[in-house]
Structures are given as C-alpha cells and as structure tokens.
C-alpha cells in the first residue's frame, strides 16, 4: 500500500470515529456544536499517520465532545496560500514548516511531539547517511558527486535535515549529489537501493536504521553510518546530523481564544499510556529556523531565485549604496582629473610668468649694466675731456710760438710752415672733439615723467632673480615724483646690491627698505647691518674711483650721485651706530601743478 492510500484510509477512519464520538457524547440533541478545522501539511511518513496523527485526533474527539472536527489537507507546495483559502484553526506540520509560518500567517505553537525515550523535544529528529560496508566513502563530505536514495524530498528527517548537514559543511545541497532517487515510501526502500548498488548512499530518517535491523529487513553490519553520532552519547539511535524538533501542532490567529485554550489543555493532557509519544510545549526552534534559512525554504525561498527582479528585491539597498559609491568614485576621479588639469594649467602659466619675469629681469639687468657702463664712460669722458684740454691748448700755444720764433729768425721755410699749419689744424680738431665730449657729458638732458617711487622700487627689486629672506620691505606708500624712472631704478638697485654685498659676512644679516615723506620731498632709504665703515671710506662714498670693495672701481655710487642730481635730487649716507650703512635718495614730491 502506498503512502497516499494509507493517508486516505486514516482520514476516513478518523472522520467516522469523530462522528460516532459526537453522537455518543452527552451533548444535548439539537445543540449547535462548534467546528474545529485541523489542517495537515502532507510531508510525513505513513507511520506518522498510523501511530501519531490518528490516535491524537481520536483522543481529541473524545476529550472535546462539544466540538465538531473537520479535517483538511494543506498542499506543501503552497502552505500560506492553502491556509488563506481553507482557514484551518489548527495546523499539524513538521517543525520546518511551522517556523516558516511564524511570521505569516502568524502560527503559534500549541504542542510538539516528544517520542518515548527522548529527554528533550527540541532534539528529536535526525538523519543518517548510510553506505554499503565495503564502500570507500568515509564521510558525508566524500559523497560529493555521488548518487543518493531518499524516501521523499518533502520529509523533514528523511531529507531536509540531511541537506542542512551538507550546507553546514559549506556545500550547495542542491548540487552536491550527481542524482537523487525518491522511493516515496514504496518498495524497494532506501536501504534496499543502497544494498543493491542502485545508489551510492542513502538517507534514513530517525531510528529507521534500528527498526530495519529489528524487523530483519537489514542485517547488522550490512550498511555503515557516515559521521556516526549518538552511541557515544548513550542515544538509542545512531545519526549523522544534528537533532531537531519533531511534529508541531500550532494554532492560527483567527481561532477563538477559548477554543485554543480547550484544545491546548486537551492535547497536553493526552495520556502516554499505550503510546510511544507525548505532546509537550517546546520553545527552542532557533536551530530549525537556521536550517530553513540555510536551505532557502519558506520566507527564504526567494534566495534561490537568481533573476534580476529577485536580486533587486533582495539586494536593492546594497545595489543603491554600491551605485552611489560608484558614482562618488567616478565623481571623485573626474574632480581630481579636472583639478589636476586646472593646477597643471596654472602651473604652466606660473612657469611661463616666471620665465617672462626672468627674461624681463635679465633685460633689466642688461639695461642697468648698459646704463652703468654708459655712466662710467660719461664720467671717464668728462674726466678725460677735462684733463686733456689743457695739454691740447699748450700744444696749440707751443705750435704758434714756434711759428713766430722761426719766422723771426727767418728760418720759417715753406715746408716748416706747412707742417706747423697741419699741426695747428690737428690741435684745433682735437680741441673740437674734446669740447663735443664735454658738451655731451654735461649738457645731455634727462627724460623725466610723472612716476611713483614705490613702483620704481618694486621694479628695481624685481631685477634680482631672487632675494634672501632677510631683505625686508616696509609698507611702501605711494610716492609721486617727476623723474626718469629707469635712472632712479638704477640707484635703488645699486643701493640694494651694495647692501647685500655688505652683509655677506654677518651671522644674522638684515637689509631693510623704506619710503618716508620728508617735508616737500620723499626719502627712500636702504639700510644694512654690515660691518662698521671707517671714516676714510665713509668720506669718499660717492666719489668716482673710490670703493670699499676689494675689486670695486668706485664708479657705481659716483654715477648714482650724478643721476640723482640730474633728476633734481641728491644722495645722503649715514653710518649706523651698531654697524652698517644707511643710504638714502631724496627726491622732490611731484604735485599736479608742478608737472611741466
């Protein structure tokens, strides 16, 4: 007889017995009886129907005569949907099915089956992996890629618990075996398929191995239990897996509280005499919850669906966070690249500006050098013209006297006269050249214009490729003057250059530049803390040909003095008490009405 036939026969017997009990009860005839609907999730073995389900319902029908019982099967493939349609008051199911109903529709445990000999209802059911005794397979992990025989894929201890053990070993239970053969509790059974070699291994439910040996269907030692547990702990049945709760009877939210109370009292009061089980209350279903989570059953069934829609439902938060993170990374990379490009462009412009300033500084240095050379040449020319004029005049006088003398003596020949005339002509020509040089040196006019002494000073400082940190420039005010900017720039640059040279041997050098008003004039001062200057050197400052430097010619300050005077100004020098020199350029202020 198949499992389906057994279930149908048991249901018919239960219905007939319940009707007879209702008729024999002491309930008044014609009194309305309350109906209790009990739903059964069909995932049990035939033994459960014969030895547990039928006796329990028989007892309840006798213990609760004022209730009329109705029974219905719940399709295991859609338990929540079947419950919503049939609305049973109570559900009989495995522990795995029960935990799937905790959240929806909100099942509540009434009692859990505890077999005789089991101390704890939470640790009752287990599975056993069996292989032929001669099999080379020594552990559950060694079954990977092999074939297996099972009673029913819906069975809790006949298959689901076994799958949970495979998942605990970090394997995918749905891809672990090469093939799975179901017997559906028919003949030949799981043990027969393994002994015949039709399957490499088999999964037996709780205590099934011991029952087969006891009934003579299996010889002891014919099969071997993999990863055997139980004997060491003194258990009566061997197993390969952890233990879980047995069958559970649970109530549903719409069942009246009074009915639940009557049903619970009757069920927990069911005597164990003559039966191999009892109904007790159990509270530890956490391992069962972890099991169905690992197998992706019930509320975790969506974990098996790998479609884009299912993945989105499961991981939409993570996906959105990942997308946001990706966008943030892309934004960061783009921002950094744009910033690098901007900084590179700015750096390129800065380099070009630096190169331009360097070129301008080089040109300015060249202009200053030319101005210095021109000034030196002008000074030397003026000196030369001044000194050579007297000898030339004497030569001219001597030539005229010689001609008179020779003429008086009568010795002035034509040839001598020609020579003397030629000599006088050359002397006169030389005198004209000297006068021209003196005229240029003394009478060349400056080219003044409205300028700012602060701007001129800043331009002079830019002529240096780099200035040491000890060169400090005070807050320079705007100082309008009427000068030749290039010539005044030469003076400022000369002051700074001399100050830098003076502080080369000082431990803590200091050069300071300032502009201050002084009456109707502006005073530009460059001071240093160089070594003390002797009175002799100080007195000769600004005099051409004298210098405090070992290799100096002494024309720099001399030229500066001349330039200052051409620009309606003058230079002043002061010795500092603590050492060093203070050089000042004084120029008249330039008012609008004073501009020519």
UniProtKB/TrEMBL annotation:
What Enzyme Commission number(s) appear in the record? 2.7.13.3
Record SMART domains: HATPase_c, HisKA
Q: Which reaction does it catalyse?
A: ATP + protein L-histidine = ADP + protein N-phospho-L-histidine
Keywords, in A-Z order: ATP-binding, Kinase, Membrane, Nucleotide-binding, Phosphoprotein, Signal, Transferase, Transmembrane, Transmembrane helix, Two-component regulatory system
Domain of life, per UniProt, equals Bacteria
* Enzyme class label: transferase
List the transmembrane segments: 319-340
Residue stretches making up the Histidine kinase domain: 383-591
In the UniProt record, the signal sequence range is 1-26
Task: Write down the PANTHER family for this protein, in alphabetical order.
Answer: PEROXIDE STRESS-ACTIVATED HISTIDINE KINASE MAK3, SENSOR HISTIDINE KINASE
Please report the name of this protein according to its UniProt entry: histidine kinase
Q: Which organism is it from?
A: Mesosutterella faecium
């Amino acid at each position: 007889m198949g499992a389906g036939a057994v279930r149908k026969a048991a249901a018919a017997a239960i219905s007939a017995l319940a009707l007879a009990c209702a008729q024999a009860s002491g309930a008044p005839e014609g009194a309305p009886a309350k109906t209790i609907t009990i739903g059964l999730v069909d995932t049990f073995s035939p033994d459960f129907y014969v030895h547990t389900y039928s006796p329990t319902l028989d007892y309840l029908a006798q213990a609760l005569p004022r209730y009329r019982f109705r029974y219905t099967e719940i399709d295991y493939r859609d338990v929540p949907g079947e419950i919503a349609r049939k609305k049973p008051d109570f559900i009989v199911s495995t522990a795995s099915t029960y935990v799937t109903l905790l959240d929806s529709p909100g099942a509540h445990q009434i009692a859990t089956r505890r077999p005789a000999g089991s101390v704890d209802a939470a640790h009752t059911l287990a599975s056993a992996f069996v292989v032929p005794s001669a099999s080379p397979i020594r552990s559950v992990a060694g079954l990977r890629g092999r074939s297996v025989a099972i009673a029913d894929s819906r069975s809790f201890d006949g298959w689901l618990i076994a799958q949970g053990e495979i998942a605990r070993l970090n394997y995918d239970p749905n891809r672990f075996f090469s093939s799975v053969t179901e017997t559906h509790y028919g003949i030949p059974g799981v043990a027969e398929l393994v002994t015949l070699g039709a399957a490499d291994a088999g999964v037996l439910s709780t205590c099934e191995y011991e029952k087969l040996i006891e009934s003579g269907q299996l010889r002891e030692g014919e099969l071997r239990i993999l990863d055997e547990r139980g004997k060491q702990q003194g258990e009566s049945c061997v197993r390969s897996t952890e233990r879980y709760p047995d069958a559970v009877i649970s109530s549903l939210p719409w069942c009246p509280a009074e009915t639940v109370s009557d049903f619970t009292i009757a069920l927990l009061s069911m005597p164990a005499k003559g039966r191999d089980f009892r109904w007790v209350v159990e509270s530890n279903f956490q391992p069962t919850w972890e099991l169905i989570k690992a197998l992706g059953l019930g509320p975790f069934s969506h974990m098996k669906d790998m479609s884009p829609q299912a993945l989105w439902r499961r991981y939409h938060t993570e996906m959105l966070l990942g997308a946001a993170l990706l966008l943030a990374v892309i934004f960061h990379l783009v921002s950094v690249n744009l910033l690098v490009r901007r900084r590179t462009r700015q750096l390129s412009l800065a380099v070009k500006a630096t190169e331009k300033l360097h070129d301008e500084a080089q040109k300015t240095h060249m202009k200053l050098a030319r101005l210095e050379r021109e000034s030196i040449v002008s000074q030397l020319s003026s000196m030369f013209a001044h000194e050579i004029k007297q000898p030339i005049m004497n030569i001219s006088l001597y030539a005229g006297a010689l001609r008179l003398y020779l003429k008086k003596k009568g010795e002035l020949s034509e040839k001598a006269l020609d020579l003397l005339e030629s000599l006088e002509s050359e002397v006169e020509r030389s005198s004209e050249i000297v006068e021209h040089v003196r005229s240029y040196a003394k009478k060349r006019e400056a080219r003044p214009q409205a300028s700012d002494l602060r701007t001129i000073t800043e331009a002079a400082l830019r002529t240096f490729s780099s200035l040491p940190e000890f060169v400090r420039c005070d807050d320079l005010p705007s100082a309008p003057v009427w000068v030749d900017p290039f010539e005044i720039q030469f003076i400022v640059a000369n002051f700074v250059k001399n100050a830098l040279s003076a502080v080369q041997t000082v431990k803590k050098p200091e050069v300071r530049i300032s502009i201050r008003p002084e009456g109707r004039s502006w005073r530009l001062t460059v001071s240093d803390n160089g070594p003390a200057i002797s009175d002799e050197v100080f007195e000769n400052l600004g005099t051409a040909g004298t210098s405090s430097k070992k290799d100096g010619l002494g024309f720099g300050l001399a030229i500066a003095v001349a330039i200052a005077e051409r620009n309606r100004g003058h230079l002043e020098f002061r010795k500092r008490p603590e050492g060093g020199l203070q050089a000042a350029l004084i120029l008249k202020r330039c008012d609008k009405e004073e501009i020519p």
